[in-house]
């Protein structure tokens, strides 16, 4: 009998890895993120950069998160934070220079996906609303920092949004998002009232507008990271804004009637 045809050659591992570097970012992606401990323990050409990026991002992580994780470079807390960030950023740039742009972007994405997923899981598990809000804000600020780092290290690679890749149910993630939206609305309402009562105008109004725009940017960033469709996120924002405005009016009437 004729010999069996030789199997088609498998793609080179490096090529396959590059093609799948951002596959998890696509809509409907189900791949789970590796815990940071496991990610840092892995081997590969990118690992030095992976560890450097994780070390830098951990500076802005909540206290106690990722503490004593093997593989992290830790600058003593006695060193001012600005200096710690500078030292760790220098290490990131040094390791990135040894790799191609796509490999740099891949390393940042892997670290961000791992860390932010763990932090989002932590936020969803907190009981106090204030703590959940603070945790959610930390998530979105770190997501923005990671995206900026990716753009800096790989400017020739189109920036990709970093998305949640864990086991928490979508409903729980929405609850975290709603808590964060509530905090934004409350802040805007309090700032508006303070400005009106104080007769603020000019610079005060401009500062408030800038603050509102920054809050909206962070709110949209959190929704994108958690995987909430843009339309749904906007609807939730509108619902919470209307509900809290109605409550504020009700409280105001009660205060007027009681005075």
Structure, briefly:
The protein is an all-alpha fold and 259 residues long. The chain contains 9 helices and no strands.
Tell me what the structure shows:
Residues 7-29 have low confidence and may be disordered. The protein is elongated, with a radius of gyration of 23 Å. The relative contact order is 0.10. With 259 residues, the chain is mainly α. It has helices at 13-19, 36-41, 47-58, 81-96, 101-125, 129-153, 170-197, 203-226, 230-258. The protein has nine helices and no strands.
Keywords:
single chain, 259 residues, mainly alpha, 0% strand, elongated
Reconstruct the topology from this structure:
Layout: H1 13-19, H2 36-41, H3 47-58, H4 81-96, H5 101-125, H6 129-153, H7 170-197, H8 203-226, H9 230-258
Helix pairs in contact: 3-4, 3-5, 5-6, 6-7, 6-8, 7-8, 7-9
Number of discrete helical segments: 9
Helix content: 55-70%
Distance between the termini: 101 Å
Shape: elongated
